[in-house]
Amino acid sequence: MALTRGDATREKLLKAAIGLFHEFGYNGASVQDIVSEAKIPKGSFYNYFKSKEELAIAASDVFYPYALAFLELENNSSPVARLRRYFRLTLNEMRRYGYVRGCLVGNFASEITNATPALKKRVTELLDEATRRIAVVVLQAQEMGEIDPNVPTMNLSRFILNSLYGAIFRSKTDRTRRPMKLVEQFALDVFVVKKR
Predict the structure, then answer these.
(1) Band of the pLDDT at 2, cuts 50, 70, 90?
(2) Alpha carbon 152 to chain centroid distance?
(3) pTM exceeds 0.90, yes or no
(4) CA distances from 121 to 8, 63, 140, 144 (A)
(5) Is pLDDT of 83 > 90?
(6) Quick one: 5 exposed, middle or buried, by C-beta within 10 A (0-12, 13-18, 19+)?
(7) How large is the average pLDDT for residues 105-117?
(8) How many CB atoms are closer than 10 A to CB 85?
(9) Is 25 left (phi over 0), alpha (psi -120 to 50) or beta?
(10) Confidence class of residue 99 from pLDDT cuts 50, 70 and 90?
(11) 107 three-class SS
């Protein structure tokens, strides 16, 4: 099915915004930057989005399912192996862009203020969804005896996500895989039950 002209223009704005928000952050990418990148007249922007904040929310909703899909929720393979794969795929995505992009939603989380309440709410919802997905896999691992069942599932899941985002931020400055490897070592391995 072909996109209508309006849909195509909206897609161009979203694509430009995702790239620029990744590279320069919410505060570093202006509406003018976005319309210039999309090759669309600035006046047309407001036919599709009321504000840059609304565009950022739409960009988050396009980007985050892609990032969440790195963690497989199916339960016919080792849950710990799936968590390790999640870290590895995230690392590969960072390496692909020279460690400078980070995560779009994580970047927004580091920049949001009371001036962007709708974006703040959406970022919170998306991070909560990521925590819930991790918790599904952690619980599977606990039920299979791969992770200590005495560790509170949601707390461990929050800790893993928080550690992961800390590593993503640090990787942007270090430009190495080291922070991500430390997440696996200290936010996951210490909770994995050692097989005898």
Answers:
(1) very low
(2) 23
(3) no
(4) 28, 16, 29, 35
(5) yes
(6) exposed
(7) 89
(8) 15
(9) left
(10) confident
(11) helix
Amino acid letter, residue 169: F
pLDDT digits (tens, 9 = 90+) for 56-76: 999 999 999 888 899 999 868
Please, what's the b/e burial string for 31-40 (b: 16 or more CB within 10 A of its CB; e: otherwise)? bebbbebbeb
- Taking the C-alpha atoms of residue 30 and residue 32, their distance in angstroms, rounded to an integer, is 5
- Matching residue, tokens 């790195």: 70
- Is residue 68 classed as helix, strand or coil in its secondary structure? helix
Residue 175 half-sphere exposure, CB side, CA atoms within 13 Å? Answer: 3
Q: Which two tokens stand for residue 85?
A: 């794969």
Q: Which of 110, 117, 113, 103 is nearest to 59 (CA)?
A: 103
At 16, list the tokens: 């430009």
Separation of alpha carbons 158 and 190, rounded Å: 15
Q: Is there a contact between 118 and 33 (Cβ–Cβ < 8 Å)?
A: no
Is the pLDDT confidence value at 168 over 80? yes
Of the candidates 183, 151, 187, 190, which has an alpha carbon nearest to the alpha carbon of residue 168? 183
C-alpha to C-alpha distance for 196 and 192, rounded to whole angstroms: 12
